[in-house]
Structure formats: structure tokens, C-alpha cells
Design a protein that fits this description.
It is built from 34 helices and 33 strands. The protein is an alpha+beta fold. Helix 15 links the parallel strand 10 and strand 11.
Length: 1163
């Protein structure tokens, strides 16, 4: 290793070209840059992915590696025994880019800008606050002491005199209590928290300034840690201060009690100051700015040996000594421990801020990251907030590494500190093994408890004592998702990390349960004093965690928040309802049977039967095993989840099924999704295999068959309605199939002749199939276009069992001839343009669609929630009348993108999360500036992605008004990005799609867990100009006529006279509504924009007048029906809207019931 520089300037140069982040550098007396120790957790992994080319300006962000996704790499075991943080190479510090970790990447630049925008200007926001703090401190210091008085007498006298209730925690002290309370001026008053460290942000809802008031040690006795005595003295001390503050400045401020972080043992006094003049006109005026007075204990008030997690400091009336020994009070003990650490952690965080220049900004980034995911220091927000984040980083800057050394270097930037903290949270499971920052100072058994443990041995405090196992697991899951995001070079890191809010339960969890316990009184006697609702939440989590087993990745219980109360009132009790979020495990979510231990394992089998009760039964399986098992009657994952929860909670907590409610059921039931859908799609694919076999079995075909490819949504698990093989309605929807022959020189070298040859081929296949199979009928159909260079015909093949297929033939020479015609400059422009359009249709039908169908079918097989999500999203597009402009294949890619790029969440495991996250993705997609890229084959390079972005930018320069190209959607097999959007949508439709997605996301956020799904699918008909209401009766009649065979008996409206009853109807090229809209668009292309209803029960066609048709001068050849404008001079004409609507009524005939002009009474 090269020699270290001697001066500061040389050191900076040395750092620029040397990966100094591999070392911790500390100034010393003799050698100011002495190397202390390598950071053990920054070691390179055992296996790396192949290095890729990076830009010259690569930075910390581009040093992210994707080996966390490497299926061949071995998982590293996390070692908490002083080995620091070991991660699967989130950062490759041995790469050549490690020397440029501080370079400005896009992520770092955006993060720096975020810090500038979110930092709170304390001088402007808290003008005059320091004087208020000094005033409050002087009032507290001036309060006179009083001698010890029995607690009951002192309480009665105080409350009667001051009309202030003393906020004693439950249970309140008994009247015959023999201990006394007194008051003495505080030992010290200090402001702590974010106000001191200057880490507040503009996005905070509440700007709280915490002033701790340290009670003197003379007020306490040695055994005040027992039986709530300390907390009773603390509550009296707080009320006494409240009385004096109220008497001095009560007219100037608003005063309330609240629970500190919703801990029922810790009431605090909230002083809400009058709004400052400086902030009335600023953005901070919307914040709730207040001061919290927090009494705290003096240092070393109680010995640690009395407050370990296994100690029991609440003596009950039970005389059973063994039962008393088991009733430990870890939450009570940790709360007592935390009371003496306010000033200590103030020193720790201040020291970290002084030694590490980026510490404050890293804390701000952590606050934003936690806030976007719904975390906070309050118990109802998970118990991990800004303080826990700041303390964790401060301690990692001092310890946590090998042999007690620092795990992080003070030289890291804010972004690097943030990533390191996320890495630490993602790799450390605090629930499975207690983590201590310096394991040499903490015995593992002495700090272990049921909940998560992040132990600070110096201050003897578990920083996570307010967290539950569920919230700790959810925090780790969020950190893992962010880690994977930062390691994914192709993803948009910044928005998913800091901007997107992920605190909406229905967007996060696959199932959300609301559990109400009308009998919380039985938890009042529990020793740990967490509160009745918290103890109930722990019981519910324990039971549901065991009941769901491996079918759930995560079970989290969310407690209700606690409110403030007046000084003269009492603390309001918490609601008796908890919310449970469940994230399913993909491989087990649909399992209908719980498999227990074999009968030979008697102890395990007994425990299984004890848990499941009468539902447990012994069964013999096909493999000969005899197992305990439980079978569920429900079929869908959400229904199975509800059945399991209701049964387990009823058995163990005596809750009736009515008290366990599944939230969001209406969303999943918006379309008819059942457990039979997957078998129905599988049956359709098997019927295609039968059809393929029949085609390939035909003898002596002129050309050899190379491939048959289905290209229908029915064959890729993506149709809104599941295929009904063997059943039929008024019409039959066939599966489109492309037939590919081996390359041959027998095809004519003329495009029109090729189309005629295709027809002959179809007729030949028709004759061969019908002669070889009695159960097949076939009909030759024609596309709705004139004879020309495009495909003209198809063959419909119907089986007796109801399966139907539509066969089209591919000719490899056709594509070559179209390309020649496009490039032939001797032809006129119209002919070349016609060839170009035909070439695009040919490429779409025979090249893109087969690959698309294969891709979607493959991913639907891998991801069980993808298929129902696609179907539900299609229903949403159809309900809002967008399917006539946005192809169903493009909608499928929208959904697939939400699954392939799920950040900041994990991959959706249910239709609800898949649907809502797709809407979030659409609402945030800036299609004007960003292409949608799906690396479906996982082979796109960064250069290829950059080329797609460049293509979009070039289109925007050529077509700034987006008259031709609006959306660019690229895949691995179509890197042009234009195949899926060549027929739309237009700028108008794309903008409406985005606005509707944003409105839906707003509704979901506002309604929360009580979401009513119906408004999500209600079209805003008032936004249109014209509504064409169709006759449902006429539509059915037309469907029956067009779907019947010409030689078959005629249909009748009376079932007993219907000669065609029981016969399968014929497939049709398009439904009557589609044909009508197609004709209206052809005739009124320049006049109206039509929005047909895509849903089966939607018989309304909406329309908008073309906004470009403004009154103009008359000229010959106007493409629309016009009339003169009376109030204008000269030959000014405008669209004759009344005449156009009358023409539409004539074209539609009996199909049109009424035409409504929105905003007018006349029809």
C-alpha cells in the first residue's frame, strides 16, 4: 500500500484516488491519519455477477451490484458476535468505481436536492421560540418545594385546588397506599430531540420541541421501581408543573396531556404556542408546532440488575410462586430504563453530529424513508422512528463492528450512511437473535426477550422495546425491498425510496383484517402494563402467526392511535379494534389443507390437535403417510385467510366470526374471480394442444408445418372472463391461432396473390379437418377490409365440446415483399404508406403477439396473482371506457410492469395489492419524458435502455405536440417501443388514463382500510359531450342472428319454439357494438372521439367533440357536417352538431335507444 500523505491537501488527493472507505481514519497526536481497522462488513462477497460497463461519471449509486438476486450464490449468515454488518455485497468496494463513491450520480444529485427542499429553516419557523423555552424553564425552576405527603391525600387536595387531573397510569394508586409524594425543583431542564440536532423536515405533520425535566433523586426511594411507584411519582410531578405553568401563562397557550409515543406509562404535558407572525405566511403554518414537557429520571436511579427483561417488578396478588417467577415485565422494565437516557442520548447524538459531518442529513433521509412507510416512534406507528434511527447510526459510528470497533466511518456521505443503515436493517433479524452493539459487554441471556432486541450495553437499553415482532419484521421487509431496489440498476431508485408513500394498508398487505374484542377487561390485570389493546394485539399476532404458518410471509398487528386529553379530563381508552395486515407466501397462499406432524410423533401431534381442536383429523395420503391435518372449505386465498383467522381467534380468544372482518373484499369481487378460473384457462390451453395435434396430423399438406402459436388473451390467462369450454352464451369467443409453415419458394412473389393463396390453404385445411374429424365444424371468415396486400381471411374451427379457434396463416415471404415495397422510391407515396401500415400489422400479428402471449402466460404461471390482477385492471379500463383506445395487450404490460418493478413494495401476492399498485404505477408514470421498459427476458443492457430513452427524446423533438407517438412501451423482444402503441392511445386518452389513476389512488388513500370499491369502477359520464344509449334487447337479438348458422333452424324469442336451442353459436368477427363504433369512427373520424363501453353490461357509447374543430372560414372539402355561424361576419362555419347526431341515430337504427347531450335537457 502506498504511503499516507503528511498534510491535509495531500490527504484529500489521496482519498480521491484510493478506496479510503475500506478503512476508518482517526486523527491522532503523532500520526493524524492513523489507520485504525478495516471495516469488516464492507468486505467483498464470495461471488459477484459479471462486471458491466459503467459511465465515466459512475458513483456510489452505480457501484450497486445485483448479486443479491444470484440464485447460485450462497447466502451469508449474519453474525452478531462483534462481526459487524455483513451484507451480500450491496456495495462492491473493490471495483474500480469505489474510488469515485462521492461522485454525483443521479440518485445522489436528487438526494442532495431533496435535502435542500425538505430541510426546515429553524430560524424562520421558530422565531422567538428560544425565549419561550427560557420562560417556561424559569417558571419550572421557580416552583417551590413541598414536603412528602401521602399520595391519596396529596392527589385529592391538588385536584380540588387546581381543577387539574393527575394523569396516573392504570391502575391508579389505591386509596390505602402507604407511600408519599413530594415536589422539588428539577435537577436540570434540557431541550432534546430533532430541534437540537436540526433534523426536522417540512413534511412533518407535527413539529415537536421536547424539553426534558429531570426530577431530583431525593424524590425517590430505592424500591420505587416496583409496582408503578416511579410512574405515580412522575405523574404527580408532571401535574404539579402543569398547575404552575397554567397559572403563569395559561392564558397565552393551549395545554393538553398526551402519552409519550403512546406509552400508557408516560403522560407528558403539551404546550401549543400561539402561531408566530413569521410563520403565518410560510409553508410551516400548516404544521402542529408545540412543546412537550417530559419528566425523566436522574442517571443511575435504579440498578440494571433489577430491570433486566426477565425481571418481574409488578407484584400481583397470586400466591403461586412459580407463576410469579414466570411473569416477567420487559416492557415495564425497558420503559423505566429509558427514563434515565434522555440526556445520555442527547450527548451521543450531539457527539455523532460533531464528528460526522453527514450525520444530520443521514437522519433527515432516514426520517423521510420511515415516514413514507408509515413508521414512527409511536407504538401505533411501529415503535421505530427518527430517534431510533438517529441513535442506531450514532452507535454504529462508534461501535457495532469487529472487536468493538466502529462499523461505519465518519467520512461517509449522507447517502452512503443512509444506504449503510438500510443495509444493516435488511440483514439483521432482531426477532430471531438479540443484537447488541458491543456483544462483549452484554450477555446474550440477560438481554433476550420475546420481542425484537437492539441493545445498547453502555446505556443498558433495548432501543426496540416499543416494537412488536410483527412491526420489526415489517421494518426488515421494507429495508430488504429498498436494498433490492438500490441493487437494481434498471429501476428508478429515488422516487421509490423517498417519494412514493407506502403506508396505505390495502396497497401493502394482501389481506387486511379488522379484529374487534368486546372483552378487553380480561387484559387489565396483565403485569407488563402495555395496555389492554396492546396485550390483545400480542395475543392475536401469536395465534395468527401460528395459524397461517408458512402461507404468510408477514403478519403485522397495527394498534389504534391514542389521542390527547384536557388537563381536567382523563386519558381516553383506546378503541377495541386492531388491524392485522397479512402478506402471503406465493407458493403456499392457495393451500387448502394444513399438514401437521405424522401420527408417530405423539407430542407434536398432540400440540397440533390442541391448537386446531375439532378441525384436526388424521388422514392417510397417497404416498402412504399418515398425518394430522386441517382442511378448509374456502377456495380463494383471501377467503381461506378469513376462514383461518375466524376459526383460530374463536378457538383461542373466544371471538365470534362477526368480530373478524376482512377489509377490501369488494375490490376482489368487482369481477367474477373463482377458484375454477385457473382450471378453466388450463382447459383452454389443453384444447389448443388437441387442436394443434389435429392440425399436425393432417396428411400430405403442401407445406410442412413449423409452428402453431396462440395469440389470444384466452390462451395467456388474461381475458376478463374465464374461458367456458363446453358452455356458451349468445356468442363464442375463439382462440386466435397463427399457423407458420416452413420456409418455401412455392409462395407467389405478389402480395395480393399471397392473400389468395392463403385462402386456398384455409379451404384445403377445412376440407381435410372436417373429413378427418366428425366432431369439427369450420367456417371461412373474412377480415373487414378490401382485397389488397393485407391478410384477408381466417378459418373458424369449432369442436363439439365448445372449443373454438380462429386460424390465420403466416407467410415468411410476405414480410420481405412488404419491406421491398416500403423502400421502393419509384412507387407513389400512398402505395409505400399502405405497405408500411400493412407491414406494421403483419409484424404485430405474426411476430409480436406470439411472443407477448408466451411471455404473459409464463409470468402468469410463475406469479399466481398476475392473472386475476390483469383481469381486474382490464375491467377498470373497460369501466372507464378506455379499452377502445388502449389495447388489451398494452394493459397487460402495465400490470406486468407493476409485478416486475414492484418497488418500493415486494412482488404482489394478491389481486388487491396488484390492482392498487398498478394504479399507483400508472399515476406516477411520466409518459411524456419516460418510456416504459419491461425486460421480460432479463437481457436488456444499460446501453439498450439508453437507446430506448434516446428514441423517446427524438420523437418528442420531431413531434412535440405528440400527434403521432404518445407512449413508448418497450420489451425485450420489441425495443422500438412503438409496436404496442401504433394504434393509440392519443395524448387525450393517455392524459385521461393518468388522471383517472390519480383520482383512484386519492380515493384509496382517503378511505383507507374501509375502501368501497364501487366508486373505483364508476365512469364519470358527466365528462363527455354525448352519450349514445344502446338497446340491450336489440343487441341480444343481433348477437343471436349473427351467431347462428344460415342453414340451421331459425332462432325464436320463445324458448319452446327455438329450433336452435342447445346448439353452439358461431364465432363472429366482432360484436354489434364494436361494429357500430368501427363504422362511426370511420365516418366521423374528424368530428367525434368515441368511447365504447368495454364491460359486458355497459350499453352506453360516450363521445367528445373534437376540440380542434373551432369555428373557421368556409372552404371547399371540409370533412364534417357544418352550418353557418349567425353572429359572425363573413363565411364562418362550425360543426352542425344536431345534424351529426341525427346521422348517427340513422346509422345505428334500432340499436340506438336514445342520444343524450350532456348538460342539455333535450335528447
Amino acid at each position: 500500500m502506498r504511503n499516507m500523505p503528511e498534510n491535509q491537501t495531500d490527504c484529500q488527493t489521496f482519498r480521491k484516488f484510493t478506496p479510503t472507505t475500506l478503512f476508518t481514519v482517526r486523527r491522532g497526536a503523532r500520526n493524524p491519519y492513523r489507520l485504525i481497522a478495516p471495516l469488516p462488513w464492507l468486505q467483498p462477497p464470495k461471488k459477484f455477477w459479471a462486471a458491466e460497463k459503467v459511465a465515466a461519471t459512475a458513483s456510489f449509486d452505480t457501484a450497486i451490484r445485483r448479486n443479491t438476486m444470484d440464485p447460485g450464490s450462497k447466502r451469508r449468515k449474519l453474525d452478531h458476535d462483534g462481526q459487524g454488518i455483513r451484507h451480500k455485497s450491496l456495495i462492491d468496494f473493490e471495483s474500480r468505481d469505489a474510488t469515485r463513491l462521492s461522485a454525483a450520480s443521479t440518485f445522489v444529485l436528487k438526494t442532495d436536492e431533496l435535502l435542500k427542499e425538505t430541510k426546515l429553516d429553524a430560524a424562520a419557523s421558530f422565531k422567538g421560540l428560544d425565549s419561550q423555552l427560557h420562560k417556561i424553564k424559569s417558571i419550572i425552576d421557580s416552583i417551590e418545594s413541598h414536603d412528602a405527603t401521602p399520595i391519596h391525600d396529596a392527589s385529592v387536595k391538588f385536584e380540588k385546588k387546581h381543577r387539574i387531573t393527575i394523569p396516573y397510569p392504570e391502575p391508579k394508586p389505591a386509596k390505602d397506599s402507604n407511600y408519599k409524594v413530594a415536589f422539588a425543583p428539577p435537577a436540570q431542564c434540557n431541550v432534546v430531540g430533532s430541534y437540537v440536532s436540526k433534523t426536522m423536515t417540512k413534511s412533518q405533520e407535527r413539529l415537536g420541541i421536547d424539553m426534558v425535566v429531570q426530577m431530583p433523586q431525593s424524590l425517590f426511594q430505592d424500591k420505587d421501581y416496583l409496582d408503578m411507584r416511579y410512574f405515580y411519582r412522575r405523574a404527580y410531578y408532571l401535574a404539579y408543573i402543569a398547575s404552575k405553568v397554567k397559572s403563569e401563562i395559561g392564558d397565552e397557550i393551549e395545554m393538553h396531556y398526551e402519552l409519550l409515543h403512546e406509552n400508557p406509562l408516560l403522560p407528558v404535558l403539551v404546550l401549543r404556542l400561539p402561531q408566530q407572525e413569521a410563520s403565518k405566511s410560510s409553508k410551516t403554518s400548516k404544521h402542529d408546532t408545540h412543546i412537550r414537557l417530559i419528566p425523566c429520571a436522574p442517571d443511575d436511579l435504579f440498578p440494571w440488575s433489577k430491570l433486566t427483561p426477565t425481571s418481574n417488578n409488578i407484584r400481583t396478588e397470586s400466591t403461586d410462586p412459580s407463576k410469579k417467577a414466570q411473569a416477567s415485565t420487559p416492557f415495564y422494565n425497558s420503559t423505566l430504563n429509558a427514563e434515565k437516557t434522555f440526556i445520555q442520548y442527547l450527548r451521543v447524538i450531539t457527539n455523532a453530529k460533531n464528528e460526522c459531518a453527514a450525520f444530520a442529513e443521514a437522519c433527515i433521509l432516514g426520517r423521510i424513508w420511515l415516514q413514507q412507510r408509515g413508521f414512527g416512534s409511536a407504538i401505533s406507528r411501529g415503535g421505530f422512528g427518527h430517534f431510533e434511527w438517529a441513535a442506531m447510526i450514532a452507535l454504529l459510528l462508534k461501535t457495532g463492528g469487529r472487536n468493538g470497533q466502529a462499523a461505519l466511518s465518519n467520512s461517509l456521505s449522507a447517502t452512503e450512511l443512509f444506504k449503510a443503515a438500510i443495509q444493516f436493517l435488511s440483514t439483521t433479524d432482531f426477532t430471531k437473535k438479540a443484537f447488541a452493539f458491543n456483544s462483549a459487554k452484554a450477555a446474550a441471556e440477560s438481554i433476550k426477550e420475546v420481542g425484537p432486541v437492539l441493545f445498547d450495553p453502555t446505556r443498558q437499553l433495548n432501543l426496540l422495546f416499543k416494537m412488536t415482532a410483527g412491526s420489526a419484521n415489517y421494518l426488515q421487509m421494507c429495508a430488504k425491498s429498498t436494498t433490492e431496489l438500490l441493487a437494481d440498476e434498471a429501476s428508478q431508485k429515488f422516487d421509490s425510496t423517498f417519494i412514493t408513500k407506502t403506508d396505505v394498508p390495502l396497497q401493502v398487505f394482501d389481506a387486511v383484517l379488522e379484529i374487534k374484542n368486546p372483552n378487553l377487561a380480561k387484559y387489565a390485570a396483565t403485569a407488563d402494563r402495555r395496555s389492554e389493546i396492546a396485550d390483545f394485539g400480542l395475543d392475536a399476532h401469536r395465534i395468527l402467526q401460528k395459524a397461517f404458518g408458512n402461507r404468510a410471509q408477514l403478519v403485522q398487528v397495527h394498534l389504534p392511535s391514542r389521542k390527547q386529553w384536557k388537563l381536567s379530563g382523563t386519558c381516553p381508552s383506546a378503541p377495541a379494534t386492531v388491524t392485522v395486515g397479512v402478506i402471503f407466501e406465493l407458493a403456499h397462499m392457495s393451500r387448502q389443507m394444513e399438514h401437521g406432524p405424522p401420527a408417530e410423533e405423539q407430542k407434536d401431534a398432540a400440540r397440533f390437535r390442541q391448537f386446531w381442536g375439532e378441525k384436526a383429523e388424521l388422514r392417510r395420503f397417497k404416498d402412504g403417510s399418515i398425518l394430522e391435518c386441517v382442511e378448509w372449505t374456502s377456495k380463494l386465498p383471501l377467503e381461506i385467510c378469513q376462514e383461518i383467522a375466524q376459526y383460530a381467534l374463536n378457538r383461542h380468544l373466544k371471538l365470534s366470526p362477526d368480530n373478524v372482518y376482512v377489509v377490501g373484499e369488494s375490490l376482489a369481487s368487482a369481477i367474477d374471480i373463482s377458484n375454477m378460473d385457473k382450471p378453466a384457462f388450463d382447459a383452454a390451453r389443453r384444447s389448443f394442444q388437441t387442436f394443434e395435434h389435429d392440425i399436425r396430423s393432417l396428411d400430405e399438406l403442401p407445406l410442412q408445418i413449423r409452428q402453431l402459436s396462440p395469440v389470444s388473451a384466452l390462451a395467456r390467462y388474461a381475458s376478463v372472463e374465464a374461458p367456458l369450454v363446453g358452455f356458451h352464451k349468445d356468442t363464442v369467443e375463439p382462440i386466435d391461432v397463427n399457423l407458420y409453415f416452413e420456409q418455401s419458394s412455392k409462395w407467389p412473389e405478389n402480395l395480393t396473390a399471397i392473400q389468395e393463396a392463403k385462402i386456398e390453404f384455409l379451404l384445403d385445411i377445412d376440407r381435410r379437418l372436417t373429413s378427418a374429424h366428425d366432431n369439427i365444424k369450420s367456417y371461412l371468415g373474412r377480415e373487414n377490409r378490401d382485397i389488397g396486400i393485407s391478410n384477408l381471411a381466417y378459418l373458424d374451427i369449432l369442436y363439439d365440446n365448445g372449443a373454438a379457434f380462429r386460424l390465420r396463416i403466416h407467410c415468411d415471404l410476405e414480410e420481405t415483399l412488404l419491406e421491398r415495397q416500403m423502400k421502393n422510391k419509384t412507387l407513389d407515396h400512398h402505395t409505400r404508406e399502405e405497405a408500411e401500415q400493412a407491414g406494421l400489422r403483419f409484424n404485430w400479428l405474426f411476430n409480436i403477439l406470439p411472443l407477448h402471449t408466451q411471455t404473459i402466460a409464463t409470468y402468469c404461471t410463475r406469479l399466481p396473482a398476475l392473472s386475476p390482477t390483469i383481469r381486474l385492471v382490464k375491467h377498470w379500463f373497460a369501466a372507464h371506457k378506455l379499452t377502445g383506445h388502449i389495447s388489451e395487450e398494452l394493459i397487460e404490460l402495465f400490470v406486468l410492469h407493476a409485478f416486475m418493478q414492484p418497488y418500493p413494495w415486494l412482488i404482489p401476492s394478491s389481486v388487491t395489492t396488484g390492482f392498487l399498485r398498478t394504479l399507483v404505477s400508472l399515476s406516477k408514470w411520466d409518459w411524456r419524458e419516460e418510456p416504459l421498459i419491461l425486460d421480460t427476458a432479463e437481457e436488456l443492457t444499460m446501453d439498450e435502455r439508453g437507446a430506448i430513452q434516446t428514441e423517446l427524446e427524438s420523437w418528442r423533438k420531431r413531434d412535440p405536440n405528440m400527434n403521432h407517438t404518445v407512449l413508448v412501451v418497450a420489451t425485450s423482444y420489441d425495443q422500438t417501443g412503438l409496436s404496442y402503441t401504433q394504434d393509440g392511445p392519443s395524448k387525450l386518452i393517455a392524459g385521461r388514463m393518468t388522471r383517472l389513476a390519480k383520482a383512484a389512488c386519492k380515493l384509496v388513500r382517503e378511505q383507507g382500510a374501509r375502501l368501497d370499491a364501487a366508486p373505483l369502477f364508476e365512469p364519470a359520464l358527466q365528462d363527455y359531450d354525448v352519450l349514445i344509449h344502446l338497446s340491450s334487447k336489440a343487441l341480444r337479438a343481433v348477437a343471436r342472428e349473427t351467431g347462428s348458422d344460415a342453414v340451421a333452424p331459425r332462432t325464436s324469442q320463445f324458448r319452446n319454439l327455438n329450433g336452435a336451442a342447445g346448439r353452439a353459436p358461431l364465432p363472429v368477427r366482432a360484436g354489434p357494438v364494436d361494429v357500430l363504433v368501427e363504422e362511426l369512427r370511420r365516418v366521423y373520424e374528424d368530428t367525434l372521439v368515441f368511447f365504447p363501453g368495454g364491460a359486458a353490461d355497459d350499453s352506453t357509447i360516450a363521445a367528445l367533440w373534437n376540440p380542434r374543430l373551432q369555428p373557421s372560414k368556409f372552404r371547399a372539402g371540409l370533412p364534417y357536417n357544418f352550418r353557418g355561424v349567425e353572429d359572425e361576419d363573413g363565411d364562418v362555419v362550425e360543426v352542425n352538431r344536431t345534424a351529426v347526431l341525427l346521422e348517427i341515430a340513422r346509422i345505428g337504427g334500432a340499436l340506438i335507444k336514445t342520444i343524450e347531450v350532456v348538460g342539455e335537457d333535450d335528447e
